[in-house]
Amino acid sequence: MIQLSTSPPPQNSSPETTSESKTPASGSSVQISNDEVKLHPDATPTPGPDVPAVTCPSYDEIQFKKGEPLSEGHRKFPYSRPSPECRTFNLPSLEKLIVQMKTIIKDPDLFRLFENSYPNTLDTTIKWRGYANKIDPVTKNETATDEELTFVITGDIDAMWLRDSASQIYSYLPLLEASDNRDSLASLWRGLINLHARYIIISPYCHSFQPPPESGLQIQHNGAYSQNKPIPPYDPKKVFDCKWELDSLASFLQVSSAYYQTHK
């Protein structure tokens, strides 16, 4: 286990699962009650930050509506970001950067592309954040630790690819600053490193993984599992898909090194 967190988990709070009346492919929705969630079979949800229970449109619905205001250029691109309360992670420094970039990117259509795309990972794909559980070897009881976890999806499947999630978060490296704040980018980054480390220990030859049991999220069915015969075999409750990709391991080293360089 890699222990990077310095702040204890909050008390009397609920897991930051993300869902809605219709679960979107993008994972851009927010919390619903536990009785509406199909839990991971091994789940003992870990306390996470309090999140307002609101109903949000899926990212597909946002795209279909072609939200206004349209960009003022020839292309008339729609505004495609979820409202702040429906974003899966809010980062004030990112919002400041977007405002600054409007004065730099003079073409209004090009700026709208940046405005919609650059924050998309934080807006829509931080499916869950929480803390790791520790299992007592004698009693088998689970207790929450202060080890942060961040589960990042690619957008269309509630599974996490090592390479993809690393690249998604790495794009925010210019905004990464040392911080113990639970709502900081550093916290998000620590959680990703910790979960990557867990997955690599579980199955170092695989590249895509199921939600952690602490999240309470439903494990995803991979139709190709019955046709795949990887050696060594993998547990489909923990691994979504298994292909040996050197860049998956390299991506873990990339985000870990970036965090270290920022915090040393």
UniProtKB/TrEMBL annotation:
<dbReference type="GO" id="GO:0003824">
    <property type="term" value="F:catalytic activity"/>
</dbReference>
<dbReference type="Pfam" id="PF06824">
    <property type="entry name" value="Glyco_hydro_125"/>
</dbReference>
<dbReference type="GO" id="GO:0005975">
    <property type="term" value="P:carbohydrate metabolic process"/>
</dbReference>
<dbReference type="InterPro" id="IPR008928">
    <property type="entry name" value="6-hairpin_glycosidase_sf"/>
</dbReference>
<dbReference type="InterPro" id="IPR012341">
    <property type="entry name" value="6hp_glycosidase-like_sf"/>
</dbReference>
<dbReference type="InterPro" id="IPR008313">
    <property type="entry name" value="GH125"/>
</dbReference>
<feature type="compositionally biased region" description="Low complexity">
    <location>
        <begin position="13"/>
        <end position="26"/>
    </location>
</feature>
<feature type="region of interest" description="Disordered">
    <location>
        <begin position="1"/>
        <end position="53"/>
    </location>
</feature>
<protein>
    <submittedName>
        <fullName>Uncharacterized protein</fullName>
    </submittedName>
</protein>
